[in-house]
Amino acid sequence: MDHFLYRNGSLHAEDVALSEIAAAVGTPFYCYSAATLTRHYQLFTEALSPMPHLVCFAIKSLSNIAVLKLLGDLGAGMDVVSGGEYRRALAAGVSPDKIVFSGVGKTAEEMQLALTHGIRQFNVESEPELRALSAVAVALGKIAPITIRVNPDVDAKTHEKIATGKKENKFGIPINRAVEVYAEAAALPNLQIVGIDVHIGSQLTELEPFEQAYKKVAELTETLRAQGHSITRLDLGGGLGIPYERSNSAPPLPREYGALIQRTLGHLGCEIEIEPGRLISGNSGVLVSKVIYVKNGEDRDFLILDAAMNDLVRPSMYGAHHDILPVIEAEAATEAQSYDVVGPVCETGDTFAKARPLPPLQADDLVAFRSAGAYGAVMASEYNTRPLIPEVLVRGDQFAVIRARPSYEEILNRDSIPTWL
Ligand SMILES: *Cc1c(COP(=O)(O)O)cnc(C)c1O
User: Fold this and answer.
1) Reduced to 3 states, what is the DSSP secondary structure of residue 40?
2) Which domain holds residue 61?
3) Domains identified in the chain, total number
4) Is 147 in the pocket of ligand 1 (CB under 6 A)?
5) Looking at the predicted structure, is the pLDDT value of residue 251 above 80?
């Protein structure tokens, strides 16, 4: 459930009409609902309530500091994958002992940053990283708390670009080598083993791959404990999918996911950490865009929008579907038309949808892409020198710009011409 609904025929974010925001900030823009973010976070904390737990929001899905503050104030921890994201978490006021650091390519600088300001744990993904982290920790005179990310070799049954738990993927260490790698970690100075980490992919729409992976993690916990390692935390990653198409059957709910965790891992007495991104942020955001032209082609009509692939790359990158709604609701009797919905960028890949049934639309009409909160703004670029679009946060009847559209001056001033040119 989210808080983007029609009221008197006009699409609202909570109590604010999207058309009102469009008039104030211009299009295109991202709009997030605080009530929806809150609700989705709470679904996870409720689902895990029978076990000691920490829900760490995956910042990479939506990294605006205002959103991080909102979630952090509710008690969320954060999952970061770069020094930049770590700085965002600190800027949002999140306590370092609630920040976990993931990612296959952490640099020595990033390790220093996190060890200096504090970190809950590093989720280490390789043996060279273990050695590098140990060396940085020794140099700083700090102890680095770690889990090791194991790759359980399960098929997450999701899009190939976001499946991470098969042995051919670059992530983690093969689970059958875990005993060896944990022994090495235990022997290295200034590392403190606290648990095990696993993350098998994103946009999972079935529980079965999680179940397979978590059963392997349960076995591994017992094995490692038998070897004398202290395993007190299990970081289970993110990955629960969301319904991008309202018409399709819904993916499992956090409640069912929580019950699965309890069933497969509850008996171990570990603190459970999860790192959901998409399920918290995805349906908490929409992208609002304006129709520039309706172009009648030979065999189809094109809806040319002022948003493009640089603003929302998921359709061109993953072939992803986003529901598109007219901001002003069509009369019930209106017959749908079929449109190819495209942006102005000079690439055929700049297509949001083909043959999409929509009510008849005209230039200057507004449309909203649903489920655009996750992997939307964070993946945007300024391709074609199109300014990054603003982000707006709504709570109740209030809204605020939480990232402003840059001016052309700011954009152009980032380039410099060498004196010798
Ligand atoms: C991407 C990622 C997440 C978040 O995934 P979602 O599908 O957005 O829930 C969590 N943990 C790690 C390590 C990731 O790479």
Assistant:
1) helix
2) 34-280
3) 2
4) no
5) yes
pLDDT at 202 over 90: yes
- Encoded tokens for 213: 């992976």
* One domain for residues 264 and 299: no
CA-only gyration radius of the chain, Å: 23
Q: Does the CB atom of residue 201 touch ligand 1 within 6 A?
A: no
At residue 257, what are phi and psi to the nearest 5 degrees?
A: -65, -45
Residue 140 sits in the same domain as residue 105: yes
275 lines ligand 1 (CB under 6 A): yes
Boundary-marking domain end, from 280, 301, 333: 280
Instruction: Give a yes or no: residue 40 inside a domain.
Output: yes
Q: Which atom of ligand 1 is nearest to the CA of 103?
A: 13
| Alpha carbon of 215 to ligand 1 centroid (Å) | 20
Question: Are 385 and 350 in the same domain?
Answer: yes
Q: List, for residues 258-287, the tens digit of each pLDDT value.
A: 999 999 999 999 999 999 999 999 999 999
Work out whether the CA dihedral 70, 59, 3, 253 comes out positive or negative. negative
Task: State yes or no: cis peptide before 189, omega within 30 of 0.
Answer: no
In sequence order, which residues have a C-beta less than 8 Å from that of residue 123 and are 6 or more positions away? 100, 101, 102, 103, 146, 147, 148, 149, 197, 235
Nearest CA to ligand 1 atom 10: 238
Distance of CA 181 to the CA centre of its chain: 29
Q: Does the C-beta of 278 come closer than 6 Å to ligand 1?
A: yes
Residue nearest to atom 2 of ligand 1 (CA): 238
For 295-320, what is each residue's pLDDT tens digit?
A: 998 999 999 999 999 999 999 999 99
Asked if residue 417 belongs to a domain, the reply is no
Q: What is the pLDDT of residues 45-77, one digit of tens each?
A: 999 999 999 999 999 999 999 999 999 999 999
> Which CATH number belongs to the domain containing residue 151 in this structure?
3.20.20.10
Q: What is the pLDDT of residue 156?
A: 84
Sort strands 285-296 and 29-33 into parallel, antiparallel or unpaired.
antiparallel
Backbone angles phi, psi at 379, to 5 degrees: -100, 5
